[in-house]
Fold:
Amino acid sequence: MTAKRTTGLMDRLPPVRGELTADAPIARFTWFKVGGPAEVLFQPADAEDLAGFLAAKPADVPVTVIGVASNVIVRDGGIPGVVVRLGSGFADIEVQGNEITAGAGAPDITVARAARDAGLSGLEFLSGIPGAIGGALSMNAGAYGREIKDVVIDADALDPEGGRHRLGVGGLDLGYRRCGVPEDWIFTSARLQGVPGDRDEITRRMEEIQAERQATQPVKTPTGGSTFANPPSSQAGGHKAWELIDKAGCRGLRRGGAQVSEKHCNFLINTGGATAADLEGLGEEIRRRVFEDSGITLDWEIRRLGVAAEPVAREIKPEDGS
Structure:
């Protein structure tokens, strides 16, 4: 099925200082470069604009949030309701002493660079995580031995009615690739803790991370980062998701324009012309094969948003001579 377009949705939405766009293409925002349109795309001017919108919008209008959409598959039928994209109004970064306050739309690598320029260590790992701070909070993103929970002091968020909340580490309830904050809350900023360090050493570590990413991940191909979370070590015998996928014979597996990366088989790539259905279908085939091979069910790390497209009816042609 496809997203059901609500007649006159734009007319039902409150006035904003940001930008509202009906039937907006959003594949261009996603790293996979696939997916259908947003029924309405809202790019708020700032957190105050977003809070006012949430407080005044009709209660029956669903809201979906995206940032830089690095770990997202938008399904081919698009996303009904309002898609909120946190852009430049949420990208400010401020350094005060050993703390960095970053907007939810600030790219992780930009935050890492700001910390480096300020001589703060401990945030180098962010340079190896594709995405922005809001997404990193919502999944407790981590890489190279550290996670957001290791550096976050507190975070600001809006509830579905536009209410403002400041949450400390305990309130965030962060675990492996999870956050305990309700999914319909929207992070707007976070305060992160750095440690004074040598700028040259910080630079060297960030360069090491970038070199390792380029050597081991398909960074120059449309992708979405790690597709599946690593299962608990006790369940998988210490094997990571990519090892289970490789063992199940999925390296290089294809469906339409989607492929399991030959370089890192926990990455799906768009080789050109892939649909969201190709990517999601390939992911489900991987999960099936891994379960058959090892008895382990892989959990998606990539968010899949929206609805599938209606299947295209094939033309029925008469047989020759009829």
